[in-house]
Amino acid sequence: MRLFPPRPGAAANCGLLLRMLERLQVDPVAAWRRPFARRIGAMARACAACPAANRCEAWLDRNGALEERYRFCPNAETLDTLPRKG
Asked: What's the predicted TM-score (pTM) here?
C-alpha cells in the first residue's frame, strides 16, 4: 500500500534525470556507488516532483548551454558533485 499516490508524469520526470546524467557525462557505475548512491535517490525524488520538467525536457532536446540548467533544475548543484566519465 502506498501512502502517497505517484504524481502524474513522475516516471517521465525520472527519465529526464537519466537523460541529464548522460548529457553531463556522469559515470553511471561510479555514481551508483557510495557515497553517491544516496544522492541519486534524492535527485530521483526531486525529479519526480519537479515543476520544471517541461523546461528540462526542452533544454535536453535542444542541447542547451550547460550553465542554463541552474535556472530551472533543483538538482543542478548536486549533479556537479557526481563523478564524470573518463
From this structure: 0.82
